């Protein structure tokens, strides 16, 4: 599959296409890249797609903890050919010893290995072929800054229902199934805007159905059998409703959520709030809250400005709450500061535990 067949993440693909053209024109490997986004968003699939586009091999490590010793890392890297991709998922989980060994080859394609122990130990330098290191992470703030400095960072945004529907239809087609337009939209609405969830749902459906043509009624019946329908509120419902809200509705929902968690909530004026939408109080602490009803990841400039605003307001800490996610730079800036970034996944989890519905801030 080439990039033209990869569904979604149009901004990331546009940037990557430009990078790929430069790499091809100069006959050199692609720079190291870091793909950031919650689990199941298609980061590994995109890495394999890029490798296919460049006609290079991809060596994948799905569990970084299996790289236990520097020798394990050396075995992986010395088998790489010029331009090959080395994909490590969830790179924030790399052991400290392995991380220290990885920094040099990522920077200058040399690997130092200590042979032996004690007085007889000696250091050998291995020259590596120029490769592309690709990391994926769902927690970009936990990726070592030294490693991140050598990588180009791409942040995955949310998928819309239409894109998830395309993914479902493509998976079904590969397995010999056809589906109605209304049926595929119905299935897509129950996938929490996540390709991984879409693939899991399709796997369930395919294992259950004998028919090769899926109608809307059949899709609804199958969803009901697997428990996706008939619940008071599913996470998918909550996700979809949150993303359908306008800015004011979202702000009111967040206010209701904080009230359910025992906070006293004050709305700031519509103008002159300097990025603070709510001021919430609990246990004599003043907390500033900014609500971002966005479709794209919230970047570092927003978080930086909010930090200045909460300090000026005399708040002890702050929350930035969004219907999408945050860029890796936003997470990096917030690290060590009294700011908590709440993305869509964390928001739906908080709301579900509080028993919240996504309409009018009502409880279930």
State the low-pLDDT regions, or none: 358-364
Side-by-side strand order of the widest sheet:
2-3-6-1-7
Radius of gyration: 23 Å
Report mean pLDDT, rounded to a whole number: 85
Gross morphology is globular
Tell me about the biggest sheet?
A: 5 strands, parallel
Helix content: 40-55%
Structure description:
- The protein is an alpha/beta fold and 364 residues long.
- It has 14 helices and 14 strands.
- The two termini are 44 Å apart.
- The longest helix has 17 residues.
- The chain is globular, with a radius of gyration of 23 Å.
- Helix content is 43%, strand content 18%.
- Strands 2-3-6-1-7 form a five-stranded parallel sheet, covered by helices on one side. Strands 10-11-12-13-14 form a five-stranded mixed sheet, sandwiched between helices. A two-stranded antiparallel ribbon has the order 4-5.
- The C terminus is likely disordered.
Write the layout of secondary structure elements.
Elements: H1 10-26, E1 33-36, H2 43-54, E2 58-61, H3 70-78, E3 85-88, H4 96-108, E4 110-115, E5 122-127, E6 132-137, H5 145-148, E7 152-155, H6 161-174, E8 178-179, H7 181-188, H8 195-208, E9 213-214, H9 216-225, H10 235-244, H11 247-260, E10 264-267, E11 278-282, E12 285-292, H12 300-312, E13 317-322, H13 328-334, E14 339-342, H14 344-353
Provide a concise account of the structure shown.
The chain is α/β, with parallel strands linked by helices. It is built from 14 helices and 14 strands.
List keywords for this structure.
364 residues, 14 helices, 43% helix, 5-stranded parallel sheet, alpha/beta, single chain, 5-stranded mixed sheet, globular, disordered C terminus
